[in-house]
Amino acid sequence: MTVVLGRLVPVPLRDAWSHEAKDFTPWLGVSDNLALLAETLNLGELQVQGREVPVGSFSIDLLAKDLSGGLVLIETNLAPRITPTLVKS
């Protein structure tokens, strides 16, 4: 049997998602994509609880919950950032 393999190539993020809030955040909120993020970060299963959830004077891009009820706040950003973008409580 012959296995055909593809080649991974770098793609600029903006080529895949032109707008963070309109394209990337909704894409990440799809269960299969969120599951891939959770698996990659060893967070277990996550379920989206809301998008653009108000917290004080700003909004969380995605609010998720793990199986133990812990909250996971996800702030999406397609540009480099100094501050942490994922916090688990």
Description:
This protein has one domain. 26% of the residues lie in helices and 29% in strands. It contains three helices and four strands, in the order αααββββ. The chain has helices at residues 13-16, 20-28, 31-40; strands at 46-55, 58-66, 71-74, 86-88. The protein has a four-stranded antiparallel β-sheet, covered by helices on one side. A hairpin with a 4-residue loop joins β2 (58-66) and β3 (71-74). The protein is globular. The mean pLDDT is 88.
> How many domains make up the coordinates?
1
**Spans with pLDDT under 50 lasting ≥5 residues?**
none
Strands in their spatial order, largest beta sheet: 1-2-3-4
**Rg calc:** 15 Å
DSSP strand tally = 4
Please state the average pLDDT score. Answer: 88
The total of helices stands at 3
Could you describe the largest sheet, including whether it forms a barrel? 4 strands, antiparallel
Order of H and E elements: HHHEEEE
Terminal CA distance reads: 48 Å
What distinguishing features does this structure have?
89 residues; alpha+beta
Describe the structure concisely for a colleague.
This protein is an alpha+beta fold and 89 residues long. The protein has helices spanning 13-16, 20-28, 31-40; strands spanning 46-55, 58-66, 71-74, 86-88.
Topology summary:
Blueprint: H1 13-16, H2 20-28, H3 31-40, E1 46-55, E2 58-66, E3 71-74, E4 86-88
